[in-house]
Amino acid sequence: MRRPLRVVPSGAVSPARRRVILPLDDHDSSVGGPGDAERPPAGPSKRAWTFLSTHAQVLLCVWRQPDALIRDIAEQVGISGRAVQLVLRDLEDEGYITSVRVGRRNRYQLHSDRRLRHPLVAQLEVSTLLSLLDARSPGDLPP
């Protein structure tokens, strides 16, 4: 059975998208009632974010394991395999990595002497950033 719909004004948006249709709840959310214990508290929602971009996270995975499978990188970073492919292509297009086919797998060669792209950190090489982020001991780091 479908829930009834109510129209809620959405605020300052373009005239073509002025109204949003939302399903009605079983009770008015402004009045306490059954199910309130399960609801998250009202207020601003927390946006998920991280200090490192997806590109930096994928690059760190390649730094740690140059022959990693795309699905393994995807699992570590928390993105889809297709997203990993797109990031790897970006990194290869910009000269940060080179993909080498070894049998049925790819091995990624990192060009750690490349400079970071953003003007605030353009004086740093990729290897500097990755060595700071890598928790392993310096003797275990790739060349």
From TrEMBL:
<feature type="region of interest" description="Disordered">
    <location>
        <begin position="24"/>
        <end position="46"/>
    </location>
</feature>
<dbReference type="Pfam" id="PF13412">
    <property type="entry name" value="HTH_24"/>
</dbReference>
<protein>
    <submittedName>
        <fullName>Transcriptional regulator</fullName>
    </submittedName>
</protein>
<dbReference type="InterPro" id="IPR036390">
    <property type="entry name" value="WH_DNA-bd_sf"/>
</dbReference>
<dbReference type="InterPro" id="IPR011991">
    <property type="entry name" value="ArsR-like_HTH"/>
</dbReference>
<dbReference type="GO" id="GO:0006355">
    <property type="term" value="P:regulation of DNA-templated transcription"/>
</dbReference>
<dbReference type="InterPro" id="IPR036388">
    <property type="entry name" value="WH-like_DNA-bd_sf"/>
</dbReference>
